[in-house]
Amino acid sequence: MTIIDGKTTARQAREEAKKRTEALRAKGIVPCLAVILAGEDPASVSYVTAKEKALAEADMASRDIRLSADISEAELLSLIAALNEDAAVHGILAQLPLPKHVREDRVIDAISPQKDVDGFHPVSVGNMVLGRDGFLPCTPNGVVRLLQTLNIPLNGAHAVIVGRSNLVGRPLSILLTRKDINATVTLCHTGTKDLAHYTRQADILIAAAGKAGLIAGDMVKEGAVVIDVGVNRVGDPSAKKGYRLRGDVDFEAVSQKAAFITPVPGGVGPMTIAMLLQNVAAAAEKTLDA
Ligand code: NAP
Q1: Quick check: 16 pLDDT over 90?
Q2: Does residue 68 belong to any structural domain of this protein?
Q3: How far apart (Å, rounded) are the C-alpha atoms in residues 26 and 101?
Q4: Strand bridging mode 91-94 / 61-67
Q5: Active-site annotation holds for 218
Q6: N or C: which terminus of the chain carries fewer CB neighbours within 10 A?
Q7: In this structure, is residue 167 part of a structural domain?
Q8: In this structure, is residue 144 part of a structural domain?
């Protein structure tokens, strides 16, 4: 069994992004991401901090926009409109979840598709579905990149995805069924009857449900590749912060059967940030052709 080292693969992808930044800087362009955080949700604060640190390490600029949780939807939309017009800003990221009174769809739709480095805008999603050029969502793209870097055979493989969110499971199902990747996908969700029946058939099992330990040892085929996207905070009084991060997979049990498995943390998470940097580089490169 091999524990997949997402950090190393992510480091390589981040180095690539840094090289692209150097080439852009030589042409007078500094790739810049505007990062909007409304409120102080601790998980969101830590994600935003990690993204900004990664941007700095890749010699990219970031515009750190911290807003009060009671910002109105109209104010947020007008801020995004201004960023859309700002030529020094190449990408715009609104950290989710947004405060409850703000409609997420409105905010996602307001971001210019040219600056939609999260790949959530309907135009980006449409391009992805049609197999056209456009920004791919970072976590699903990171999972694909991880599998490809490890030379895991995808052509004809049966990939079973647990979770159909717009953020992870559904876009992943679209990417894996692209002709150049050619996997056969089963997409599971809470309406799936007998989840284990499907997960046991997986050559590649991807858990993205947000339920700690959902995937037990007896739900996995011997020799499967297991990718754990889940990040769950599980209370643990013996831990310094009072909780530990756990994936959706029962790592102890499943690692006895899997050929490859990602740890949490250190598996998919680092790839997400690396793919974000690549999208920011791509957004800045596009301004060269404009
Ligand atoms: P989400 O929006 O809550 O979606 C969860 C999906 O899993 C839903 O489609 C849900 O089904 C399905 N699901 C939940 N419990 C299930 C069960 N018992 N059996 C079958 N399906 C089940 O979550 P998300 O945003 O996709 O995130 C999923 C996990 O990935 C979370 O732990 C999140 O923190 C993590 N995540 C990690 C990264 C990273 O970079 N590592 C990035 C994004 C997300 P229904 O549609 O039927 O409700």
Answers
A1: yes
A2: yes
A3: 43
A4: unpaired
A5: no
A6: C
A7: yes
A8: yes
| pLDDT value of residue 3 | 98
CA of residue 163 to ligand 1 center, whole Å = 5
The one-letter amino acid code at 166 reads: N
CA nearest neighbour of 6 among 279, 262, 202, 282: 262
| Residue 118 designated active-site | yes
Q: Which residue range forms the structural domain that includes residue 225?
A: 138-268
What is the atom index within ligand 1 of the atom nearest the CA of 214?
18
Q: What is the CATH number of the domain that holds 151?
A: 3.40.50.720
**With a 6 A CB cut-off, is 6 part of the ligand 1 pocket?**
no
Residue 173: the pLDDT is: 98
Q: Give the count of domains, the chain.
A: 2
Best residue among 138, 143, 190 to mutate for probing ligand 1, ranked by most atoms within 8 Å of CB:
190
290: pLDDT strictly greater than 80: no
State pLDDT tens for residues 146-193: 999 999 999 999 999 999 999 999 999 999 999 999 999 999 999 999
For residue 58, give the 3-state DSSP assignment.
coil
Task: Using the Cα atoms of residue 258, residue 202, residue 173 and residue 103 in order, give the sign of their dihedral.
Answer: negative
Q: Is 211 a catalytic residue?
A: no
- pTM reported for the whole predicted model: 0.97
Using most ligand atoms within 8 A of CB, pick from 48, 167, 193 the residue to mutate for ligand 1: 167
Residue nearest to atom 8 of ligand 1 (CA): 163
Residue 23 lies in a domain: no
Rounded Cα distance, 268 and 140, in Å:
9
2 closest CA partner among 269, 209, 224, 206: 224
Query: Which one is catalytic: 114, 116, 118, 221?
Result: 118
Write down the mean pLDDT value for the chain.
Answer: 97
